[in-house]
Design a protein that fits this description.
Layout lengths: L7 H13 L6 H12 L5 E5 L8 H5 L3 E6 L2 H6 L5 E4 L12 E7 L8 H11 E12 L4 H8 L2 H11 L17 H11 L1 E9 L9 H13 L11 E8 L1
Length: about 240
């Protein structure tokens, strides 16, 4: 727990949220569930953009073999989740074709300047009937929409000072693969199939001010409607290799 999440203001926001969503399963928990379901006992897994840790660390450790790639050497040195961390880019994966049963992408897709190039590489290293699990930000939500309007200096200040968010959230974002339609198009061009999509909300970006959090919570209630769920903050997707 951080000082931010332990503050009286944040706890008040958490209490308001719990009143409305007492059995809520957050995006990270759902991602871990999906990844665990995809991993058979003999599975070989690749975590693209593995960083220092994973929301699905327990599931990844159960894989027979696990590899992780990232662009930040220091993060790879601190990673204790995958068996073999490697300095590499998603645009040129250092693996043979059909090497993996499962590929995981956690908070990575939004950073792809060339998503089709990355998806083609992922499809290449996936085995037939292999699975790709994606957890990313939904470009249709107001948070990424605002981030594209607000100057970068203001955005970095808000992430660091108001929200106490990790440094990776300040990395350049492009949102070129961050809608269901975009993922479906990329899948078709890469030899993949978009099998399942789930949208999950999160009003806590506004927890630095209770009145703003109440507005964000109202937004969550409105987007609980099946017709509006595609406006929630997070997008969780499962793709398979055809």
């Amino acid at each position: 727990m951080s000082a931010y999440t332990e503050s009286p203001r944040y706890r008040r926001c958490q209490a308001l949220f719990d009143q409305r969503y007492p059995n809520f399963v957050n995006a990270g928990e759902r991602y871990a569930e999906w990844l665990a379901a995809a991993l058979r006992p003999e599975a070989t897994l690749l975590d693209v953009g593995c960083g220092r840790d994973s929301l699905a660390a327990e599931a990844i450790r159960r894989a027979k073999r696990s590899f992780g790639i990232d662009l930040v050497a220091d993060d790879l040195r601190h990673n204790r989740v995958v068996q073999l961390p490697i300095l590499a880019t998603a645009y040129q994966l250092p693996f043979r074709a059909e090497s993996f049963d499962v590929v995981a992408l956690q908070w990575v897709v939004e950073h792809f300047a060339q998503p089709e190039r990355a998806f083609r590489e992922i499809a290449r290293v996936l085995r037939p009937n292999g699975t790709l699990i994606v957890l990313t930000t939904n470009a249709r939500n107001y948070i990424p929409l605002l981030s594209r309007i607000v100057p970068s200096a203001v955005r970095h200040f808000a992430l660091k000072r108001l929200l106490r968010r990790p440094a990776h959230e300040s990395h350049p974002v492009f949102y070129r693969a961050n809608t269901r339609r975009a993922l479906s198009r990329l899948a078709e061009r890469s030899g993949l199939h978009l099998a399942q999509v789930e949208y999950i909300g999160n009003p806590f970006y506004m927890a630095f001010a209770v009145p703003l959090f109440r507005i964000a919570l109202l937004y969550e209630r409105l987007t609980d409607s099946p017709r509006l769920r595609h406006f929630k903050l997070y997008l969780l997707a499962r793709l398979s290799k055809t």
